[in-house]
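In this supplementary section we document a worked example of the pipeline. Step one takes a protein sequence of length 147 as its only input; no multiple sequence alignment statistics are reported here. Step two produces a three-dimensional model, which step three serialises into structure tokens for compact storage. The input and output of this example are shown verbatim.
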Amino acid sequence: MTVSYQLVIDCRSPEPLAHFWAAALQYVVEPPPAGFETWDDFYRSIGVPEDELGIGADSISDPKGEGPRIWFQVVPDEKTIKNRIHIDVNASGGRSSSLEVRRERIEAEAERLVALGATRLNTMSQEGLDHYAVAMLDPEGNEFDIN
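The serialised model returned by step three reads:
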């Protein structure tokens, strides 16, 4: 039997993160299930209390069906420590390209994601090492890397 999974990211404001990560990963904001006008309508149908509704879009999916669904779950507290798991955005094209080409692609992606609301933390590069990556934060401060 095949096992599938979804990635759940705790957050304060799901809709802005859903839109950020949809753009970052070339995913789409997931429409509500068939037969429902909105996610709130769906959540009401399964018994979610009214005071937990109104958060907007809270999930994204890979339009190619290859990557996991990502759900942005509302939590009451703000992020206070480093993530124990993070997303790597693979933008370099892989090791078949030269380090210089990979660096240019990673830098272009970092600029694009900063324009979408990410924050650049630092560059991970060392002389003589065939590796280049950029550490970043999403709009709520969750760490991720571009490599």
